Amino acid sequence: MTVLYFTATGNSLYVAKQLGTKLLSIPHCIKTNMYTIEDDAVGIIAPVYGFALPKLVLNFLDKVHIEAKYKFLIGTYGSWASNFLKHTKNKYSSIRFNYLNQVKMVDNFVIGYDSQKQIKNAYKKHIDDAINMVKQDINARKTKTKFHFKLSAPFAFLIRSIAKNCGIRGIYVDANKCTKCGICTKVCPSGNITLQNQPTFANNCTNCLACVHHCPQKAVHCKGEKNTNRFINEHVTVQEIIKANSE
């Protein structure tokens, strides 16, 4: 089984490690022009941003050709995934996923949530139980493609459009705290950050917040963030994120 994943703060990688025997980072596939994937089963694990998959993942799905008898997609989300699965299924019907599901985890969106409170209340989400249930389904090659959604399709589309247009409310660096360690450039999956006198951001941000959460000095910020509390999945190391996103 091959699992393709996209991760910023470790949630999706943690799920991928529970499910797959062969893991491939989507940013790595893009950088090495790997768009043909063959195996008996192929899955995609990615976070949900604004009721949709990250644009980097969507761009990958536009190009990838998957040869497998069994295909699945799992979305990780923090608070509300809405009907992203239906949106994905409709948009990428050519992939014909046999199984779609979602796992509620710690939310890393610092503009909307306090990461420390999210970590403290993570037990309420029964994360490992949800992952084990998905794992059992996949191992049994179950099919699941129909879901009940809380939002109407038009309203969900409107919310996705607003989130896409707004994006992150500006990422900036506190020059007094920045030590120019370069971690932000290494965890960025889209190569959007370069290190000169201080980190410089281009216009290819995928809104993943890896640079914000992984900065050891908490020198990278979002305008409008709740506070400087940060989150990294406890089962994943920064070196794994770097390997996934920049190597």
Protein model, in words:
The mean pLDDT is 89. The longest helix has 14 residues, at 153-166. The chain has a 5-stranded parallel β-sheet. A two-stranded parallel ribbon has the order 3-5. A two-stranded antiparallel sheet has the order 8-11. It has 10 helices and 11 strands. It is of the alpha/beta class.
- Helical coverage, percent range: 25-40%
E-strand count: 11
Distance between the termini: 22 Å
Structural class, by secondary structure, is alpha/beta
Q: Which shape, going by the Cα principal axes?
A: globular
Query: Please, how many helices?
Result: 10
Mean pLDDT: 89
Gyration radius, to the nearest Å? 17 Å
Question: Any descriptors?
Answer:
247 residues; five-stranded parallel beta sheet; 10 helices; two-stranded parallel sheet; alpha/beta
In short:
With 247 residues, the chain is α/β, with parallel strands linked by helices.
